Structure formats: C-alpha cells, structure tokens
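From the pipeline queue, job 12 of 40. The input is one protein chain; the requested action is below.

Action: predict structure.
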Amino acid sequence: MSTDNHGDQRTASRERATKETSISVNLNLDGTGRVDVATGIPFFDHMIAQLGKHGGFDLTVRCKGDLEVDTHHTIEDVGIALGESLREALGTKTGVRRFASIAVPLDEALIEVAVDLSGRPFLVYELDPSGGTGQTFLIGEPGFDPQLAEEFWRALATAAAITLHIRMRAGRNTHHILEASFKAVARALRDAVRLDSGSGVPSTKGVL
C-alpha cells in the first residue's frame, strides 16, 4: 500500500488478498482516463473501465478470484479495494468540491447519482436492472449477475467512506441501465473530487 496526495497528483496503490481473491489497484485521481482492467469477468471489466474513463482517473485493476465458485467474491472485493484506494488518494480532502450530482442517459435508460465525500459511508440504491420485468440474466461469460452491482457499490461506498445515491428514472435494457449507472457515478465523482483553488476542507467541522 502506498499513497501520495501531497504533490501535484493524488494517487494510491492497494493490494488485497484473501482466500477468495487477490487484488491490486493503482489509482490516480488527477489522470487522463487511462484504464487497464482484468478481473476475469469481461462485462465487469467494461463497467470498471467506465469509472476510470468517465471519472478522468488513471486506473489499473487486477484480480484473480474464485470464479469457479461464483463471481460474487470478485465483484465485492474489487469494490472494497477500489473504495480503499479512493479514500487514501483523497487524503485530507483539502480543497475538494465534496458534493456532486448528475443525470446520465444511455438510450432509454436514465440514471441519477448524487455523491458526498462525507466520511460517512451510506448507499441508497434504487435501481431495477430488470427494467421492470422482474427478470434478470447473466451477462457475458463468466456471467455477471446484474444484482451484484448493488453489492459492488455498497462495498465501494463503505470502504471509501462516501455517501452515494443511485436512482433509476427510466430504463428497460439491463446493459444500458448498468452502464449508465457506472458512467453517472464516474462523472459525479469526477466533479466531487475536483479541487477548488484556495479552499480548505469543505466542512464546518474542519475535517471529513
């Protein structure tokens, strides 16, 4: 684990190993959207790539997990490692904008996201990946279970100590709904972590 948030760039590196997964993450909040992701779950890789690209972060993620059991451990543990990296890269959060919200469309899908770099972990997840049909399906091979997206965001929000609201306003296509949600969180985080020149920690408490 290493962190450098005192220079021009805010970066963090994490390694996390359990009996179920082995993960390494490198994150640069002040990057250019360069991503390199390999978790063994192609659709999940595509979603994590949205976070880096649309967040404007440089992001490398490597994960070897027990996919022969299922994909749950990999997806949740990547969320934990990413959340820990985000929290460390933010450091004291001096000068960050802190709050951000956005609505992102993808064809028929529309997802609203609000984020607060609050230091208080909380997730509100009002998203129906079935598009109102009540039926979901695995995406890709090995299959990504759309219901596990909520577990990913809960793990990330908890480890990063942020408040995160994700709400679906419209959507029928599962792929569109999920991709719009990852893009929306990415864009909200991009705005929330942005530095405002001359400002201190954005809290009356003096610490986040």
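Job complete. DSSP finds four helices and nine strands in the chain.
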